[in-house]
From TrEMBL:
Species of provenance: Formimonas warabiya
Domain of life, source organism: Bacteria
Biological processes annotated in GO: cobalamin biosynthetic process; methylation
One annotated GO molecular function: precorrin-4 C11-methyltransferase activity
Keywords on record: Cobalamin biosynthesis, Methyltransferase, S-adenosyl-L-methionine, Transferase
Similarity comment text for this entry: Belongs to the precorrin methyltransferase family.
Cited InterPro entries: 4pyrrol_Mease, 4pyrrol_Methylase_sf, 4pyrrole_Mease_sub1, 4pyrrole_Mease_sub2, Cbl_synth_CobM/CibF, Siro_Cobalamin_biosynth, Uropor_MeTrfase_CS
Tetrapyrrole methylase domain: residues covered: 1-206
Pathway: Cofactor biosynthesis; adenosylcobalamin biosynthesis
Name of the protein in its database record: Precorrin-4 C(11)-methyltransferase
Pfam family, one: TP_methylase
Residues making up the signal peptide according to the UniProt record: none
Length: 250
């Protein structure tokens, strides 16, 4: 059996219990060494065969999986965060499907929610934003479907931007087409890792602050008024609000 497992954002305790158990029983582990903390391999049993996919291309990854399956071994393909977000797993799953290899996906904690936890923020605040946009700046993988940052910024939603901190100046320029320059921004480098750094600012000054810290990779850019101080209280816990579990007080 093959398992695609989300390793979480960095802290080895943020893998799910299910993911940890599968990893503990794995005979073969193919992990994204450029992004996944090697510490998580401490869960693996003695004698496990480990591949670092940062040094492999797609055919090599698939061949390693195939060899493990042919030998009746349990194979774990370990991805950073949650594999469904910028995990490039579709192409792997399609190849396994062609070969008749069964697989299962075990979700993980994505870096964008880990980053929100580290800045102690809630993406969805009443009266502020009920929408989260997860995106990245256009790069070698091509443009998004109607999703240029300058167009997405017009929604003024809470935003988590992956894989873009190396172009923070251009990111800010595009965001300013929709957000005000005093919109809060947080850049979280390696959220939950020991070397984590959090840089707070606004669209007016965040590029300069990031440049001073020399951060050009492995960072989430969080943007939006959800990190501000103004919001409305939730109706969920409003004493006068009735729902199926509680009658409101007059």
């Amino acid at each position: 059996m093959v398992y695609f497992v989300g390793a979480g954002p960095g802290d080895m305790e943020l893998i799910t219990v299910k993911g940890m158990k599968v990893l503990q029983n794995a005979d073969v582990v193919i992990y994204t060494g450029s992004l996944v903390s090697g510490n998580i391999l401490a869960y693996c049993k003695e004698g496990v065969q480990v591949y670092n996919s940062a040094e492999m291309d797609l055919p090599e990854v698939i061949e390693a999986i195939q060899q493990g399956v042919d030998q009746g071994k349990s194979v774990v393909r370990l991805h950073t965060g949650d594999p469904s977000i910028y995990g490039a797993i579709r192409e792997q799953m399609d190849e396994l499907g062609k070969r008749g290899i069964e697989f299962e996906i075990i979700p993980g904690v994505s870096s964008f929610v880990a980053a929100a936890s580290r800045v102690k923020a809630e993406f969805t605040l009443p009266g502020v934003s009920q929408t989260i946009i997860i995106t990245r700046k256009e790069g070698r993988t091509g443009s998004s479907e109607g999703g240029k940052l300058s167009e997405l910024a017009k929604h003024r939603a809470s935003m988590a931007i992956f894989l873009s901190v190396q172009s923070i100046g251009q990111v800010v320029e595009e965001l300013l087409t929709g957000y005000d320059e005093d919109t809060p921004v947080a850049v979280v480098y390696k959220a939950t890792w020991p070397e984590e750094k959090i840089i707070r600012g606004t669209l007016k000054d965040i590029a300069e602050k990031v440049a001073e810290e020399k951060i050009d990779r492995h960072a989430q850019i969080l943007v939006g008024d959800f990190m501000g101080s103004e919001y409305e209280l939730s109706k969920l816990y409003d004493a006068s609000f009735s729902h199926m579990y509680r009658r409101g007080k007059e």
